[in-house]
Amino acid sequence: MKSYFGTLADGAEVSSWSLENGGTRLTVLDYGGIVQSLEIPDRHGRYANVSLGFGSVEEYVAGSPYFGALIGRFGNRIADGRFTLDGESHQLPRNDGAHSLHGGPEGFDRRLWQVEPFTEGPDVGLRLRLTSPDGDMGYPGTLQVRVTYTLTGGGDWRIDYEATTDRATVVNLTSHVYWNLAGEGSGSVHDHELEIAASRYLPVDAGLIPVGEPADVAGTPFDFRTAKPVGRDLRVAHEQSLHSKGVDHNYVLDKGLTARPEPAAVLRDPASGRTLTIATTEPGLQFYSGNFLDGSLVGAGGRTYRQGDALCLETQHYPDSPNRPEFPSTVLRPGQTYRTTTVHSFGV
Ligand code: BGC
């Protein structure tokens, strides 16, 4: 179940962990908590890896657009990499133009996590732990992070995120799997059908920072309230699509922030029959239609990844929340425990 995957420049070994349960096969790296492969069957029982990834640790280190990785401390963007908390201003490294993206240039996606396997009743899984020191990537507080990947007896992949701090800070953890239900490297996902349970989304500026109020999806290319092919409206010349070269927007889930995971999105590949249903406690979902894949990366299966060859559905709080007091809070204080859950269910 545990095997050698590679060695980092500083000599540290990277291991891969493979688990299987309820018909789902998952391979995870301790480097970045990366889902290196996730295999599920099609309607004829044929397995495919439905998550983009690389075959070597060198490729992940050299320049991965967060393939399969755990994202922290803060998923998505913080405007100008700056925020003020309890009257104190914090400057983060800017790694996305003027902004901070996905926790900065050395985020949790580039750390070696401590991994421990477990079996609990019908479930199997991995517990991933990381200590992020005070000041790490500009964020205040020592953050103790625990992420649990569970493969349930029914084949669901469940992620439980937990964090505590010794000083007030902001946290927004997510997972950055690039989905292609026909199999990684098999071509575009534009024929996949997608449904998102959100009547509103967050319009953005040219730097993909939310501006103004949430807007209605009705009458826009961003309307996925009823399942439709991902590619149907991608070329509609809407001002918002020009900023993002497709969709790269946060959806305000109708269910809001919930104590238990509730349905947020359903993705279906009509050709293979494979479906993915995502349920989450989080109030937001970043739908990124793989716009910046440009054919320059070669995946684990030896094929190049081009624009639209995968899509991401990242459950999270809204982008730039630390600067938007009207958004659900991302502040974590000593004595509190950050807890969110996202469940991925597969079917045919
Ligand atoms: C962001 C995109 C970004 C991608 C890869 C997504 O979460 O929304 O703008 O290009 O991650 O970095």
Automatic annotation (TrEMBL):
Keyword annotations of the record: Carbohydrate metabolism, Isomerase
Q: Which GO terms describe its biological process?
A: galactose catabolic process via UDP-galactose, Leloir pathway; glucose metabolic process
Q: What is its EC number?
A: 5.1.3.3
Example of a GO MF term: aldose 1-epimerase activity
NCBIfam families, sorted? PRK11055.1 (NF008277)
Which reaction equation describes what this protein catalyses? alpha-D-glucose = beta-D-glucose
Question: What protein is this chain from?
Answer: Aldose 1-epimerase
* Pathway in which this enzyme or protein is active: Carbohydrate metabolism; hexose metabolism
Q: Name one Pfam family in it.
A: Aldose_epim
In this protein, the active site sits at: H176 (proton donor), E314 (proton acceptor)
Q: Which InterPro entries match?
A: Aldose_1-epimerase, Aldose_1/G6P_1-epimerase, Gal_mutarotase_sf_dom, Galactose_mutarotase-like, GH-type_carb-bd
Family according to the record: Belongs to the aldose epimerase family.
Give any Gene Ontology cellular component: cytoplasm
For the ligand (beta-D-galactose), the binding residues are: N76, R77, H176, V177, Y178, D248
